[in-house]
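Continuing the batch. This is chain 6 of the set; chains 1 through 5 are on the previous pages. Same settings as before, nothing changed between runs. Recording input and output for traceability.
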Amino acid sequence: MPKGKVSIKDFYNINDLLPPQVLLEVFKLCRPEQIRPICKHWYKATQNDILWKCWYQDKFTNKKLKESWQESYFYMLFLENNWINNRFFNKNFYDNSWITNCKLFNNTIITTSQWGFIKEWDLNTILNQNTNNSLPFVYSGNIGPIHCLDCNESLIVTGSDDGVIKIWKRNKMNYTKMLTYHHQDVFCIKIIEDKIISGSKDNIIYVYDLKTLNKTILKGHTHSVWSIEKKNDTLFSSSLDGTVRIWNLNNKNEYDCTTCLEISKYAVLKIVLFKNFLIVATWNGKIEIWNIHEKELTYSITAHSDYISGLKCFNDILVSSSYDNQVKIWKITTKGFIGLKLVNVLDLEKITCLDINEKELVCCSSLGKIHYFNFDVKKSIIV
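Output for chain 6:
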């Protein structure tokens, strides 16, 4: 590179000075919008889909949604922009009871109720008809309130107030298995790979292996376990005792509690993971962000004026719901210090649960109303 004042032509010569593979590694550290306009050589280099894969995985956490990584990158930017700028299609429909849980999965919404009903609603049917009265597929065999729900491609699992976990095969009316090792209400449940992980009012977490039928017991919380998340070999659990416990898988394939975060004197109701941070929702309406590695609080905000009933995130979008009749959409900011920026407020009614994916939001109420929002639109449409 010549000494003295550097011209733009000299800058372009970097294409000749660096091997293509080295240039590719340099580009990975930049953003597409930073390098594409520089010159035609750099623009051509950005047509490499391997490079777009790196950019996509650096910015987003979900799987690619389009055929190429470049298409997926711009599609996710489009969806994120709609979440932030309040552009969505909205349709509401009704159940006939207090809805306790909801789950978005492959063009369906699965709900549970205080009356013990489990219903699977087909979104294509609901969205293609003009009436709000759609008949769901109903799973039978449960009596009493259902506190928690999860599903995958083949199974639905629920936990209820009698301490029983029930397993259904998808689209089969009657349950196929019943697990009775909890002694009190089951408040949270997850299907992760071949395991069912559950937390209960009995203060215990169970990890049940669907293949071997073995179960592992995790003890440590002094009050009800309300939320569970998992990342690789690490399990996170929150409790009404105001703590979040971090459990790591040891070489005996057992979980050891390696960290106990003293979050609050108030109950920790919900937790979600964002990169190296833990986002928690407490009983008094606060949302806090904790650095997992440093084990310290980095951000706190009073997000709601009442009990927080739902907390979900994807990429850098966080959604919270509350008994204060509001659903709030937040942008997780990471420039400088991590924090939350409120970008949208949905004024609804007493919201008991929510679920989201990259382009959809569903939230349900104590009145049995199901609010469905789709952000894959050019402009807002309310039906």
